[in-house]
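Hey all, quick one. A colleague (J.T.) asked me to put the flavin mononucleotide job into the tracker so the inputs and the structure tokens live in one place instead of scattered across chat threads. No bug as far as I know, just bookkeeping. Sequence used:
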Amino acid sequence: MQRLRVHALGMDFASPLVAAAGTCGYLDELSDALDLRCLGAVTTKSITRESRDGNKPWRIIGAKGGMLNAVGLANVGVEAFVREKWGHASRVPCRIIGSIAGHSTEDYAAVVRAFDGLAEMAAIEINASCPNTATGLQFSDSPELLRGLTSTLRALTSKPLIVKLTPNTGDIVGLARGAIEGGADALTLINTVQAMAIDPETRRTRLSRGKGGLSGPAIHPIAVRMVHDVYTQVARDAGKPIIGLGGVMDWRDAAELVLAGATLVGMGTSLFVDPSGPATVARDLDAWVQRQGASTIADLVGAVDMSAPELS
Ligand SMILES: Cc1cc2nc3c(=O)[nH]c(=O)nc-3n(C[C@H](O)[C@H](O)[C@H](O)COP(=O)(O)O)c2cc1C
């Protein structure tokens, strides 16, 4: 689908759709249910320096309008990832974005160095939503911390560096600016929204960790607003593409994020509902681009009309 081809980060993506970190396994596990050629990229689950078991169950539960998770970054660690999971990367028929999480700059740096050597990895995404052991703050709570982390990591790799922002902030534009000043080539937003659920009979929290992150349709309007703010106030002028995500279930949700300013669109929670969904979203998005009279979806990025809607 020519209309859906996207040029960003110095490369072509066959489609604007990206499978989101932590929702599609290590690499191409989705290919059991989906022809990955309808995606521009898959994102690996966030890989850490050491292996992690993650949190005890329950760590994923349903919620109205989406789901709550506190998986706790369960993964095999970077060494085993490269040794055991990366082997057939060259056969994955779309781009691969490697996601990294950590609790210190050195944690991130160790994984960036390892990822830098993986030829088939198209770009690196920094999941900056973990608490920094040195300050107790999340890297993504503070534009200064995020700028520092980004600039250190930027110097360690020649691959495009994407910084993923948390919505759990009063200053999403400041965070975006910090990441861009640190040298980010692109921004991904949003991660999950901090949330909590309680069983009224037992009076216990429903997630073992107490609190977790809300994803899915309930957070979609928040994502649209944040992508729009970041696009109009910092990313557009800086020439930095946005991977917009949060509750994309169908083409309308994806189109909204494009109109708000996203060049690429992530899908996460919807993959748990229907892992084959992106094929339909791609087909319907293509039809939307054609109906809009655009020759390519890139022409519609940030093209929202902010005048008041007419009453019908
Ligand atoms: C079960 C689950 C695990 C996730 N794990 C990660 C992760 O490892 N790294 C990360 O950056 N984001 C992770 N996320 C966040 C998603 O990538 C995405 O930013 C968020 O869920 C919003 O998109 P969605 O509403 O389409 O799911 C996870 C989300 C879910 C639901």
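Adding what we noticed when we looked at it: Helices lie at 78-85, 105-116, 143-154, 172-181, 220-238, 251-260, 269-273, 277-291. DSSP finds eight helices and 14 strands in the chain.
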